[in-house]
Amino acid sequence: MNHKTSLLKSPIFLGLVGIIIAVFIGAFSALFAGLVGENYGVLLAVPAAMVIGIFFLMDYKAFFFLIILFRSAMDPVFDATKLGGFGLGAVLNAIVILIAAITLIEKDNPARKIFATTWLPFLILSSFTLAIAPDVVTAVKQFLALLSYSAMLILAISLIRSEADYGRWMRAVFISSLVPVVFGFIDAATGGVAREEGFRIRSTFSHPNVFAFYLVMMISLGFYFFKTKFTYFPKWVHKYLPIYILLMIALLVMTKTRSAWVALFMFFTLYALIYERKYLLFICCMPFLALLIPSVAERITDLGQGNEVINYSKLNSYAWRKLIWHDGLSFMSVSHYFLGYGLGSFFERSPDFFTMSGGRKNGAHSVFVQLFFETGALGLAAYIWVHLKTAKLLIPFYKKNKLMIFTMIMFLLEFAFEAYADNMLAYLTYTWYLWFVLGAAYAINSLKPQDLSTEVKKSNE
Fold first, then answer.
1. CB 145 within 8 A of CB 426
2. Is the pLDDT assigned to residue 86 strictly greater than 80?
3. Mean pLDDT of the region 50-79
4. 199, β-bridge pairs
5. Contact residues for 429 (Cβ-Cβ < 8 A; gap 6+)
6. Strand partners, 404
7. Can you give the pLDDT at residue 454?
8. Residue 168: how many CB atoms within 10 A of its CB?
9. What is the rounded average pLDDT for all residues in the chain?
């Protein structure tokens, strides 16, 4: 009797029962909903959501660890389970926000103060605009995405309470790049993505640009690990890190994302100027060597043509962006300069003002233009404050840990540069990792000296 009772209470047994029940109920619900059509991936959505819920209840910290490990590879799965704009991705977002909320109520959690002084003002202002948004569903989805970005910062600060914690979580972040890198080369070998710009790769991400920005972050992070030689990784990993970094750079070239190329070039140039000037000669030669690659040269020379709107002439991507920015900002009335038209309004209203919309909805392709249009000057200022305050929190640790803080500040600068001409607010996977890494840097540097190993102390000098 006791043996049966212990079996019934076993997490493994409960998990298996939950999976069986979830598969049955989920398959039944999806089959008879009449909404699935040809999207058979939706059949797995409900049972998978239930399994996710069970796993979350069993151990939410272990569950979040798996999110960090595998979120970079999950976009294709989540896209296959979408129904009416929602899918497993939305469930995961909600759980991440819930986990962050749980950690915030823990006693003496420093994340509360950080959240209040960084993200909270912007989120409050954004929530006010939900009432005037043209499409409530779109606005709520965007708000929850913004809330999930702040949740990643909260979770990093909440979960990293020791050097061992930092090492474990940063290993998970970097290991998350393995599947996208492998699939990146598979993507390249199978022809990549057919786009107007020609051959491009996106790996496991929804768009080549998202993959490119993620690669810039992982290359920079890998370079930091290589230079610091922390024992968070085995020695053989440090030995082969340069090769892995070069492989990621090769993939970055094949994404054909120009802003990501510039961001990475900016990172290494500033590193060389500040720390190791012997790299400068090599860095100066890189642009000329890159132009020898036909696809790179084509992407650069493309900016020299299609800069004027003449009848139905084709604009290059940057000229197209400038046109939609001009049309959007010209459409705004002065009364909306303070709080905008509501979250998601740029995309929803774009057919009304964009001269080249053709009836289609388009994103702003600029975080700054988008937020000014949707949340007004107040919302845009609050969002800029999020990044300035984060930098202000990290900069005091520079003398303590120079290379780490340099890398984090570069992440913020790279994001600002990329946000100038891209829909960064919609790039959830990359932004999750960005804010988790920033939070992790703050957490490890906030530890008391006695909590750090001799190795870390030396690397900080």
1. yes
2. no
3. 82
4. 194
5. 71, 72, 74, 75, 205, 210, 214
6. none
7. 45
8. 15
9. 85
Beta strand 198-200 with 193-195 is antiparallel
Structure tokens at 303: 């900016």
Contacts of 99 (CB under 8 A, 6+ apart): 56, 60, 61, 63, 64, 151, 155
Amino acid identity of residue 457, one-letter, is K
Tokens of 173: 């972040």
- How many angstroms separate the Cα of 14 from the Cα of each of 7, 8, 136, 165, 230? 9, 7, 38, 29, 40
Distance from C-alpha of 5 to C-alpha of 144, rounded to nearest angstrom: 41
pLDDT at 18: 56
Cross-strand pairs, 198: 195
The answer to whether 271 and 226 are in contact (CB under 8 A) is no
239 CB-contact burial (10 Å; exposed 0-12 / middle 13-18 / buried 19+): exposed
Give the residue extent of every domain in the chain.
12-107, 109-460
The confidence band for 8, taking pLDDT boundaries of 50, 70 and 90, is very low
Beta-carbon-side half-sphere exposure of residue 370 (alpha carbons within 13 Å): 24
What pLDDT was estimated at residue 352? 95
Cα distance from N-terminal residue to C-terminal residue, the chain? 61
Q: How far apart are CA 144 and CA 127, in angstroms?
A: 10
For 341-374, what is each residue's pLDDT tens digit? 999 999 999 999 999 988 999 999 999 999 999 9
Q: Whole-angstrom Cα distance, residue 419 to residue 260?
A: 11
Q: What's the rounded Cα separation, in Å, for the pair 84 and 446?
A: 44
| pLDDT value, residue 296 | 76
Residue 359 exposed, middle or buried by CB count within 10 Å (0-12, 13-18, 19+):
exposed
Residue 230: what pLDDT? 75
- Band of pLDDT at residue 196, cut at 50, 70 and 90: low
pLDDT tens per residue, range 92-114: 898 899 999 989 988 889 999 99
> Confidence band (pLDDT; 50, 70, 90) for 88?
confident
d(C-alpha 385, C-alpha 416), whole Å: 12
Q: Does residue 233 carry a pLDDT above 90?
A: no
Measured distance CA(360)–CA(346) in Å, rounded: 12
